[in-house]
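Translate structure to sequence.
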């Protein structure tokens, strides 16, 4: 039981570290406002982010399981 608790703590810590990233929080808020949104539409709603940074943040959020990507 301690192992699952430790694994859960590690997972929670990873999520909080990801949310500590300025852009991750901004992107998550925009996704929450719009639910389903295309990359370019999302990019236009955050004028101060570069395409490369947005792509990196989205990739990280997908990897962390916080965002689902549909093609």
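Result:
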């Amino acid at each position: 039981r301690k192992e699952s608790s430790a694994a859960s703590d590690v997972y929670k810590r990873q999520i909080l570290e990801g949310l500590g990233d300025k852009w991750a929080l901004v992107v998550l808020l925009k996704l929450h406002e719009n639910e389903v949104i295309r990359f370019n539409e999302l990019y236009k709603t955050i004028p101060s982010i570069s395409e490369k940074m947005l792509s990196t943040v989205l990739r990280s959020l997908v990897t962390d399981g916080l965002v689902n990507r549909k093609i």
